[in-house]
Amino acid sequence: MNETTTVETHAFQAETRQVLHLMIHSLYSNKEIFLRELVSNASDALDRLRFVAIGDDAVYEGDGDLRIEIEADEEAGTLTVRDNGIGMNRDDVMENIGTIAKSGTKAFLDRLSGDEKVDAHLIGQFGVGFYSSFIVADKVTVRTRKAGEEAGAGVCWESDGGGEYSLEAIERDTHGTEVTLHLKESAKEFLSPWSIRSLVSRYSDHIGFPIRMQEKGEDETLEWQDINKASALWTLPKNEISDEEYQSFYQYLTHDMDKAMCWAHNKVEGSQSYTTLLYVPETAPMDLMLQRDERTGLRLYVNRVFIMDAAQQLLPHYLRFMRGVVDSNDLPLNVSRELLQENELSGKIRSAVVRRSLDLIAKIAKDDTDQYEKFWSQFGAVLKEGVVEDFANRERIAPLLRFASTRGDGDKHVVDLASYVERMPEGQDAIYYITAENHQAASNSPHLEVFRKKGIEVLLMSDRVDEWMMAYFTEFEEKPFKSVAKGDIDLHSVGKDGKAEDETDDQADASALDSDLLEKVKESLGEHVSEVRSSQRLTDSASCLVLGDQEMALHLQRLLEQAGQDVPDSRPVLELNPDHPLVDRLANETDEGRFGDLAQVLFEQALLSEGAALADPAGFVRRVNDLMLGK
Ligand code: ADP
């Protein structure tokens, strides 16, 4: 040890400690994944060095033979994974492996259930990476030095996975990183060359760099031997790649513990040549809805050289769950993000990526309903953004959408638009839908009453993006969308069978409330409502609120208000059910005070069934009590 340097000790963030502890316990039955994670990090580091070297190959420091070395020391009980990649300086080390620098750590911990199986799965989604070392090691030592910096800029990081890690400045002649695992007794199996070989061929055969291990040659001396195929998977012909190989490449690429749901691998040759290998994951990473993380999407290579994680340049935002690789033969090696954005070649690649992604998703929908249901539950809300974001592909996206509906199946999202349209009875000229805060609110909404009675299907939408999407999504197969909570509803011409027609007539007969009464209610409610009218929508409830066709749903208005945003002023229409006994009672009420209370209660009930909070809940309780007591 160099005596002039001091060893500093740092504490992990409390959350890091908790995650480490959990990981070690819940992933123990999967412990061999540590090697895949370390090899994957090493290969990233090599990719990044090669990229920097495009501009300045001095960073190779004369050692451009990029490789990963694995060394087992039986006596010391250590396993070392070494790369001559980009390496890290002190700041990098502190930032990258001193914290679990993931935005959702706290949220993640809150979601843990205590059930090991479930938690192991969640941890997989979280992405374990480097920290998986502690599943098999009771001490981990990292020696690293950044390429291009002086030998004296080396760093040694060490931790036993408890609460702390140490940092020490060291001399290090070679650039790159060396991770040494002091294996636990129960993990000594990983010292055997045979087990290392088999793990490498299972998990890391097709990374683009050689992995070497020292083995005894014929004359009993140790020699370095390549133990993987080292040909980037996507460069091989499809028929030479097994499903297992595709899957393990996916896991190498994404650090995902789960498998990919499916993939598409295409080579395009012609005026420009490129290869795409696209995966649909099985499960969404935890922060899918929020993340703008570049690193997790598509990786761009030019002639096998990794250039950048370029999700945003090659994929529209609504396909941000896709994973994979794009390798172009024609883009310049020094392509920048800006250039990618404007470049005609990359524009073509981007449209091809979108088309192939949508085709891949459509294929799941066509081939396997159960699988698609799973896909939809993970990524449906994100895909919906495409309806707004990608007008050019709307016709491709619309058939992929799935909704819950009043037709049944609870909150399962299994209804597609084409079959909805097919089921529409004669005379129905719109696709009806309702948006609400959650499925229950949608499905219990009074706005559905007449539709239920007449057997007209209504799509039940409760994703946050729905109201926004529907503002742009105006028709499907030439049928306009219509919210059952907005504007006029006229169902007189719907339904050929006798029963529905009878009911339509009933309604028509009953539908007129006296205009003086309506005016009087309006006066009594003042500025809370823009109009009071007789309802065509209600059969059981006494009242409901209706918006103009272009107005924003009330639940969304509330959400925006809570987020401190300006919401356009809109006053709903109050509709009263002419057949409801409470409305009768209102019509016959001669006492002014009681009339006012009853009108107010009908309005407040309508608000409540929208999920709104009342401005004066105690007043509501008093009014209802008075009415119940006949005061
Ligand atoms: P992830 O790889 O998912 O980001 P990790 O916990 O595995 O998460 O690694 C954290 C970071 O540490 C990496 O993003 C990288 O910046 C750095 N790192 C890990 N291993 C190496 C390595 N062998 N060489 C250089 N940097 C590394």
Describe the structure.
The radius of gyration is 32 Å and the shape is elongated. Mean pLDDT is 88; it is low at 498-509. It is α+β, with helices and mostly antiparallel strands and 631 residues long. The chain folds into four domains: 7-226, Heat Shock Protein 90, CATH 3.30.565; 240-376, Ribosomal Protein S5, domain 2 (2-Layer Sandwich); 402-501, Rossmann fold, CATH 3.40.50.11260; 514-631, Heat shock protein 90, C-terminal domain (Four Helix Bundle (Hemerythrin (Met), subunit A), Up-down Bundle). The strands form four sheets. A nine-stranded mixed beta sheet has the order 1-6-5-4-7-3-2-8-9. A five-stranded mixed beta sheet has the order 10-11-14-12-13, sandwiched between helices. It has a five-stranded mixed beta sheet with strand order 15-17-16-19-18. The chain has 24 helices and 22 strands. α1 crosses α5 (116-126) and α23 crosses α24. Residues 37, 41-42, 45, 83, 85-88, 96-97, 127, 129-131, 177, 255 line the site of adenosine-5'-diphosphate.
Can you describe this structure in just a few lines?
The protein is α+β, with helices and mostly antiparallel strands and 631 residues long.
Number of strands: 22
N-end to C-end Cα span: 91 Å
Q: Tell me the number of structural domains.
A: 4
Classify the oligomer: single chain
CATH class of the largest domain: Alpha Beta
Query: In CATH terms, what is the architecture of the largest domain?
Result: 2-Layer Sandwich
The hetero molecules present are:
adenosine-5'-diphosphate
Mean pLDDT: 88
CATH superfamily of the largest domain, please?
A: Histidine kinase-like ATPase, C-terminal domain
Query: Which range best describes the helical content: under 10%, 10-25%, 25-40%, 40-55%, 55-70% or over 70%?
Result: 25-40%
CATH topology of the largest domain: Heat Shock Protein 90
